[in-house]
Amino acid sequence: MAYSEDARPTPFKRYCKTLSLQADAALLATYRQRHAPGAAWPEIAQGMREVGILDMEIYLYGNQAFMIMDTVPDFDHDQAMQVLATKPRQAEWEALMATYQQTSDSATAAEKWRPLERIYKLGA
């Protein structure tokens, strides 16, 4: 679910998603390492920028991952995810990340990361 935001110099959409990871301390540690600053493959970040993702953050609580994704205002989520899937090394990255996630190897990024519904916003 997308929400228009005005907190940035230009308007953007924000998506919040969640994903369950394997409840294994070693796998969680490696997942963290794969997402440490500079550890993600440059092609992955480049592909995200090319489809209109402005910024992304991932948070962990136990084995639950929470993503905040800010995009350009006219971002079409489903279309962008389809295009992103064709970007260099994206399928390879998704297959590698699937080893840490409670999902099937054939699931798409959109099937893994489930949208969250915003139910409260301070000042709204």
UniProtKB/TrEMBL annotation:
Superkingdom as given in the UniProt entry: Bacteria
Q: Which Pfam families match?
A: rhaM
The entry's protein name is: L-rhamnose mutarotase
